[in-house]
Each structure stands twice: as structure tokens, then as C-alpha cells.
Design a protein that fits this description.
This protein is of the alpha+beta class. It contains ten helices and four strands; from the N terminus they run αβααβααβαβαααα. The protein starts with 21 loop residues before the first helix and ends with a helix.
């Protein structure tokens, strides 16, 4: 029992694939040479149509994007960051002949920002800013797109917390920031499945004990059945803890299957044991094993 809490639960995407699998190799190449492929999206909701052209929102989002490219976040796993004000700022500098006073800046009015957006949406095919706002003409929501490394679960959620905290520093207080994306969904699903699997196995164990008590009307046999059913799980968990094997999504499914097989075999053995005891068979335990040991 003491070893069970020590089972490693740090997982990451493609955890169950070998390092030389083509899928894993491809992901590594993308991370090392192409800015990553695991998406993490930050959605900024201004609350009103056209709010995305507010100068304070655009300046805040540009500052946030720049901050997420810094070494502090790169060390945490951020490989690239891109948002609408990146394009608007570059367009603003080009429009003003890249004079130093305008490089890295943005127009000070919503109308000026809208004009720059129109240059991209109206004259570029395809529009490079597409997907970075919900409406090119009157955006309410803006998107900051990140590409991150294939992180372990705890490191990933620490990065999410850090991104949310950084967003509160740079963006206006009346905006709503939501971190989303397929990578977040994958980590959340994996973490939830593992957690709920452990909880469901514990609940199932209690129900199995209750059903055994009702069926066999013998408290000792019911307790014996619960212990016998749980023993393979406890042994497997202890071995995983000693060997450092991670409790991943696939391993949690194996846990559930092992528990089901153990319960099935336990019912066979207890049924035979009870029958042999009632018939007065000498050494009922030995007889039961001989009769049902291959079930």
C-alpha cells in the first residue's frame, strides 16, 4: 500500500510509442527544426464586436506575444508564438518606411488598426491573419497561437498557469482570457481518465464486496473475495512503483481489465470453497484449488 502513491503519473503525448517510431521521430523533427507542432491557443474575448481593434487590447496582445517568446517561456517549452498584432505591427512599420519610431509600434486609433487589417484581408490571398481573429471587419475575439514542446503533464499545466498569469499582466482587465487547443484537451482527457479510473476501481471494489456479501451471506468470504480481487492490482502497482513505470492512459485501462479478471476468478474460487465446506470435504481449500484453479 505504501508504494502505491509513489507510482509515476507524469505522462506526455505519444507516451506509449518507442522513440524510434516514425510518429515520434516526426514530432521531434518538427520541434527541433520547424517551431513545434503541439498547439496551445489563447483566446482573448473583448466582449463586443469591434473590440479587437481597441488599441489597448492590440498593444497588450503584442506585449504578451513578445513576452511568450522570451527565454523564460522558451525554457518552459514555448517554441513559437504568433498573433494578429504581429502582422499589424509589421504592416505599420512598412507603411512608415520602417523608420525607427514606428518599428514595433501600432496605430493609436481603432480606425488605423482596421485599415492595416484590411490590407491583409483585402489584398492577400491567402490572408496570413486568417484564424487570428473571429471577424476581419469587426473582431470580438483574438487568438494567440503557440507551438510548444511535448511536455509531461505537470510541466504542461505549469506552463498553462504561467501563460494565464502573464496574460493578466499585459491585457486589459475587462477582457476574458481562455487557454484552449487540442494539446490542452489531450492532457486534460488523459489526466481525467487516469484519475477517474483509480476512483472507479476503488468504487467497484466496494460494490464487489457488497455483492459477495449478499450472494454468499458470509462476511469472511466477502472480505476474502475483496482482498483476493485487489491483490493483483496492489502487486502490479507496487511493481510499477519499484520499476518507475508510468501510470499512463493505456496502463490505467490494463488496471481495469486486471481487476475484472481477478473478480471473475475470485467468484469461481469462493463459490467452490463454499460448496466444499457445505459438503464437508476434507481440506476444502485444497479441493477448491484443484477443482477451479484452471478457471
Amino acid at each position: 500500500f505504501a508504494l502505491l502513491p509513489l507510482i509515476p503519473r507524469q505522462t506526455r503525448l505519444l507516451q506509449d510509442f518507442a522513440e524510434d517510431e516514425p510518429l515520434v521521430v516526426t514530432r521531434s523533427v518538427f520541434e527541433e527544426r520547424m517551431g513545434g507542432m503541439a498547439p496551445l491557443e489563447i483566446v482573448v474575448d473583448t466582449g463586443e464586436a469591434g473590440g479587437g481593434f481597441r488599441p489597448d487590447v492590440q498593444r497588450g496582445l503584442l506585449a504578451l506575444t513578445t513576452a511568450l517568446r522570451a527565454d523564460r517561456f522558451r525554457d518552459q517549452g514555448v517554441l513559437s508564438a504568433l498573433s494578429l498584432p504581429d502582422f499589424l505591427s509589421d504592416g505599420y512599420a512598412v507603411w512608415n518606411e520602417r523608420r525607427p519610431a514606428f518599428v514595433g509600434g501600432l496605430p493609436k486609433t481603432p480606425e488605423g488598426l482596421a485599415q492595416l487589417q484590411f490590407l491583409y484581408s483585402g489584398f492577400s490571398d491567402p490572408d496570413p491573419t486568417r484564424g487570428l481573429s473571429d471577424d476581419a471587419d469587426a473582431p470580438r475575439r483574438l487568438r494567440l497561437s503557440l507551438r510548444i514542446r511535448n511536455l509531461f503533464t505537470d510541466d504542461f499545466f505549469r506552463l498553462v498557469d504561467a501563460v494565464e498569469a502573464e496574460a493578466r499582466v499585459h491585457l486589459p482587465a475587462d477582457t476574458t482570457v481562455t487557454v484552449t487547443g487540442r494539446t490542452l484537451m489531450a492532457h486534460t482527457v488523459s489526466q481525467t481518465v487516469v484519475r477517474e479510473m483509480l476512483r472507479s476501481v476503488a468504487t467497484a471494489g466496494a460494490f464487489v464486496g457488497l455483492l459477495l456479501l449478499v450472494c454468499f451471506r458470509d462476511l469472511r468470504l466477502a472480505l476474502l473475495g475483496v482482498v483476493a480481487s485487489a491483490f493483483p492490482l496492489l502487486l502490479t502497482g507496487a511493481l510499477m512503483s519499484l520499476t518507475g513505470t508510468t501510470l499512463s492512459l493505456s496502463a490505467s485501462v490494463v488496471f481495469a481489465i486486471v481487476f475484472g479478471i481477478a473478480v471473475d476468478d475470485t467468484v469461481h474460487v469462493i463459490t467452490g470453497l463454499q460448496a466444499n465446506r457445505r459438503r464437508g470435504v476434507p481440506s476444502p481449500v485444497t479441493a477448491t484449488i484443484q477443482q477451479t484453479g484452471w478457471a
